[in-house]
Design goal:
single chain, Naphthalene 1,2-dioxygenase Alpha Subunit, Chain A, domain 1, Rieske Iron-sulfur Protein, 2 domains, globular
Amino acid sequence: MIFLSEVNIGEISCVWLPVMTMRDELPRSRSPHTAVDEPGRHLPYPSGWFCLARSRELAPGKVLTRRFMDEDIVLYRTRDGRSRAVRPYCPHLGAHLGAGGTVEDQNLVCPFHRFAFAPDGTCVGTPDGPPPRARLQQHTISERNGFLFVWYAPDGAAPSWDVPDTAQDGVVPTAAWSTEVRTYAQEIIENTLDYRHLPVLHKVAVEELAAPVTEGPLLRMRLRLGPDRPPALKRKIQADHAFLMAGLGYLRVELPLPSLGLVSYLWAMHTPTGPRRTRMLVAAACADISKQDATETSLPLRGLHRAFARAVLRTAVSKIHQDLGIWNTKRYEPRPRLAASDEAIGLFRHWARQFYPAS
């Protein structure tokens, strides 16, 4: 469960803090066994937009390899700043473009025979003669709020919706953390609508301010969250969180803090990397609540915002660690026996069907 209400503002004692990137290895399960889904319980890869990297990881001229749906994808950025995502193998003799491939001007160059491929994928040069009629297979890529997303559809269909932007311009994450989880992307994002586990696992009280509402590939809801403590203390600490899901790979939580003049953003990206394996990226940002363009903030305030984003991320990760022991050992239940207060999960399951093949 992703929420921000327990951020300790007292932790922010220094405004000049560097951009933080944390990485966590797959934690050991409390049990020696890993959950294995029974026949008929396996989930296929869902369609939608999935985050493969942060924009700052892909500087002009850089080449990255990312695991996606049990295959490699090569990301690169041209010298003039265009991001591209391609299948990893050179159509000439099959060299992996992520294993030594380079960007020269605007072209991706194979490390094996130096065949060059233009941003549209066509082969445009070789060291010793005219290029063959060859083309790299490309993936549709989108860059929003400092993240690089790739579109996936099992039938190869073109994107039918866009990744949502924040209401404020120029908002990008300044703190991030990632881990590998032994479960499906759907299981992780469904956890947000499982209100019953909040007081049990996280000691958090929850109040539904706006029930989940679906708009095609989007799902929105608002919750008031706070520590499950004496009523007088809960009223002081509770905060209203706005949740937005876009497909099964994207969750954004927005927390306005008018008394501080701030608004914090927390993203949780869930990218399938293989059968029942998901890379989870959590990132945070903070902005001036009164500004439409976050880049207009002064340098001293940007330092304060980075510090607050670090605190937000630290709080979120502490809660995620409590969930990891469950996610890494549970199995997917295609027909869960829901209780009377689990209506949100039922609505989510119905909404999630659109991202899977009809069969």
